[in-house]
Amino acid sequence: MTLRVIAIDGPAASGKSSTASLVARRLGWAHLDSGALYRAITLAVLDNLGERGAGSREQWSAERIVALAEDLPVRLVLVGDVFRPEVAGVDVAQAIRSERVTQRVSEIAAIPEVRHWVNVQQREAVQGHLRGVVVDGRDIGTVVFPDAPLKVFLTASPEERARRRLAERRGGAGSGGAAGGGDAELRQEAEVLEARDRADSTRAVAPLRAAADAVLLDTTRLSLEQQVQAVVALARTRLPG
After folding, report:
1. Which residue of 44, 82, 116, 155 sits 20 to 30 Å from the alpha carbon of 136, by its own alpha carbon?
2. Four-residue CA torsion sign, 175, 94, 83, 53
3. For residue 55, pLDDT beyond 80
4. Cα pseudo-dihedral 119, 107, 211, 233, rounded to 10
5. 215 in helix, strand or coil?
6. Letter string b/e over residues 203-227, b meaning 16 or more CB atoms within 10 A of that residue's CB
7. Cα separation of 11 and 14, whole Å?
8. Are 9 and 208 in contact (CB under 8 A)?
9. pTM metric for this prediction
10. ω into 112 cis (within 30 of 0)
C-alpha cells in the first residue's frame, strides 16, 4: 500500500505549518505538526522536572525525559483532521506556544533519544490514518518518512522569514502580508533565524536539509495561497484519489 504522506520541511518561518495545514484541508487529509510534539515534551519537562534542568544532566537525562513522556503520557490525539498535542490528557495546543517553551524546545529536540521517541509517535499516528497525512517539520522527508511519495522543502530569504515572524507575533498577515517592524528589528530577527538555520543544519542528529528527491519551493515572493496551490497541485499528481 502506498504511504499516503506529504512531507513538508524547511527552516523556521518558511511557511511550513501554515502551508501544511491548508494543504491538508484542501485535500481532506489530516495535519500533523511535528514541532507541536517536541514542544509538548518540553512543556512536560519544565512542569515536572523543573525549570533549572539545563544545569543538571541527571535531572534532564534522556531516560527521564522519555520515561516522563510515556508515563504522563505526552501524545498526539486526532481531533477532526488535526493531530492535537496532549499532556496527561490535557489539550496543550496553546500552552506549548509560551515563551518559556520556545526558549527550551531546541535543547530538548536535540536529544537523540527524544527524537527517536517523537519519530515513533509520528509513524504510529500516520499508520492509523488511511486517507492521508500532511506532516511538517525539519527532518520529515529525510528521517521520519524517507519513503513519502511527495516531499517538499520550503525556503525563503532570512529577511522575508524575519518579516513573517514579526508579523506573526503581532497577529499580522504572515506569509505574503504587509511588512512588520523597522529595518533594525528586521535585521535582528533575520540574524536570529540565520543562527537557528546554522544550528539546525550542522547538528549531529537529523540535520536540517532537503531530501534528494524533495521539490524545492522558494516562497520568498509567494503568497500563502500560492504556496498552498503549488503543493496541492503536486499532491494531486503524485497521490491521486
Report:
1. 44
2. positive
3. no
4. 80
5. strand
6. eeebebebbeebbebebeebebeeb
7. 6
8. yes
9. 0.88
10. no
Amino acid at 68: L
Per-residue pLDDT, averaged over 185-194, amounts to 88
**Cα separation, 219 vs 227, whole angstroms:** 7
Q: Mention every residue, 6+ apart, whose C-beta is less than 8 A from residue 26.
A: 228, 232
3-class SS of residue 46: helix
**Backbone conformation region of residue 214, classed left if phi is above 0, alpha if psi is from -120 to 50, else beta:** beta
- Whose cell is 525525559? That residue is 65
Lowest mean per-residue pLDDT among 58-62, 105-109, 118-122: 58-62
CA distance 113 to 158: 30
| Bridging pattern class, strands 74-79 and 82-87 | antiparallel
Three-state DSSP state, 205: coil
Nearest to residue 14, comparing CAs of 182, 164, 130?
A: 164
The conformation of residue 96, written as its DSSP 8-state character, comes to G
The string of pLDDT tens digits covering residues 157-177 is 989 999 988 887 777 544 544
Grid coordinates given for 33: 505538526
Beta bridge partners of 85: 76
Partners of residue 8 on adjacent β-strands: 136, 152
The candidate with the shortest Cα–Cα distance to 20, out of 119, 193, 138, is 138
| Grid coordinates belonging to 132 | 492521508
pLDDT at site 177: 44
CA proximity to 7, closest of 203, 204, 234, 174: 234
